[in-house]
Amino acid sequence: MSKVADVIDKAKAEGRAALIGYLPAGYPSVQESIDAAIALARNGADIIEIGIPYSDPVMDGNVIQAATTEALAHGFRVASVFDVVKAVTDATKDLGTAVLVMTYWNLVMRMGVDEFSRRLAEAGGSGLITPDLIPDEAAEWFEASDKYGLDRVFLVAPSTTPERMAMTVEATRGFTYAVSLMGVTGARAAVDSAARDVVEGARAAGAPRVCVGLGVSNSEQVREIGAYADGVIVGTALVAALRDGGAEAVGRLAAELRTGLKRTTAAGA
Questions:
Q1: CA quadruple 206, 209, 214, 218: dihedral sign
Q2: Which pLDDT tens digit goes with each residue over 203-230?
Q3: Are 201 and 160 in contact (CB under 8 A)?
Q4: What pathway or pathways are given for this protein in its record (predicted)?
């Protein structure tokens, strides 16, 4: 059973891709990050990614790094992410929104994989996105995610070999996260053409659901990716909206991004 898969399948049945939005926990404050995530869900996001601030975010670009650095400076601690997840899941039950946590693996290991997983499940979280964890090193996570019914989202990229693609797809539950380009996160004027190739490679390896992230910032890019992927992931643009205009700005951007989701009959076939 996978709540994330169910949410994506529901969107697909409606003839569109799912909208997935990322926001860091604790930025600008814990309550404001909760309010922003709720606004994101209520304005069209199907899945919310809650990021845990980390001092060495190797995958994150300048906007997200600045936000997470500020959250840490204000005293954010890993355990607070469960409060954020619970508040968001409780407030969006009527919408059926799935809430994932995105985290670097060191933070999970430090708390203890079983304890982290148990607390995430108790808070209503659906699973983890783990950008720096590979299936070869995920034995504890496999055990804990099965024990607590959590989804495990691994990443694939343009550089992923067919052999590793197959391994990663098999290990994944919920959706396979296709990185559209090499490098760190950040809004871009155009989405790299490699995104479609990564999606096709993941599907060829047996992935039932593939979502694309990194670089997506507007409804036209959402429309472009939503024509061939099962979900579109937006992060930096939403964090910038939160920085500049608070939760209301996040809601406005989510509503605008949602307009790009409707597929044409040919693309959705």
A1: positive
A2: 999 999 999 987 788 999 999 999 999 9
A3: yes
A4: Amino-acid biosynthesis; L-tryptophan biosynthesis; L-tryptophan from chorismate: step 5/5
Residue 239 has pLDDT above 90, yes or no: yes
Cα separation, 201 vs 162, in Å, equals 7
Average pLDDT over residues 5-9: 98
User: What is the pLDDT averaged over residues 29-49?
Assistant: 98
Give CB contacts under 8 A, 24+ apart, made by 262-266: 262/15, 262/16, 262/223, 263/15, 263/16, 263/17, 263/226, 263/227, 264/227
3-state secondary structure at position 262: strand
Positions marked catalytic: 49, 60
In the chain, which residue ranges form alpha helices assigned H by DSSP?
3-13, 30-42, 62-73, 80-91, 105-111, 113-122, 139-148, 162-171, 194-204, 219-226, 236-258, 265-268
Side chain identity, residue 83:
D
Q: In the chain, what's the furthest Cα-to-Cα distance?
A: 50
